[in-house]
Structures are given as C-alpha cells and as structure tokens.
Amino acid sequence: MHFYWRIFEELKWMGEFMVVRDPSLRRCFEAWLSNHAEAIAYQYGWPPENGSGPTIH
Fold this sequence. Notes:
- By secondary structure, this protein is mainly alpha-helical.
- The protein has a domain at 20-50.
- 58% of the residues lie in helices and 0% in strands.
- The chain is built from 3 helices and no strands.
- It has helices at 2-13, 23-35, 37-44.
- The N and C termini lie far apart (31 Å).
- 0% of the residues are buried.
- The model has no long low-confidence stretch (mean pLDDT 80).
C-alpha cells in the first residue's frame, strides 16, 4: 500500500488526482492509512491526534 500512497502523493504534486473505484483496493488502502496515520502526519510535521509527540513551532 505504501507504493499506492507514493503514487497518490506524486500525482497530487503534479496537480492530478486518482480515483480508486475497486472496493477491495479502497478498503485495504484506507486500512493502511489508518494504521500508518501517525507516521504520515510526522512526515508532514503535523502533530498527532492524541497531542503527544514533538511540538511544531
């Protein structure tokens, strides 16, 4: 799923958006995103939802 996420990110950078219509792929990708949400937020410098972690100034 990391591969698909990287494709989505590259397409967003180019101003394009991909729509996933396959229900099983969408379900797996959403599960992967929820499991890795903290790491993705950390990459962008966003604070985690629970308020822990490094502070951003």
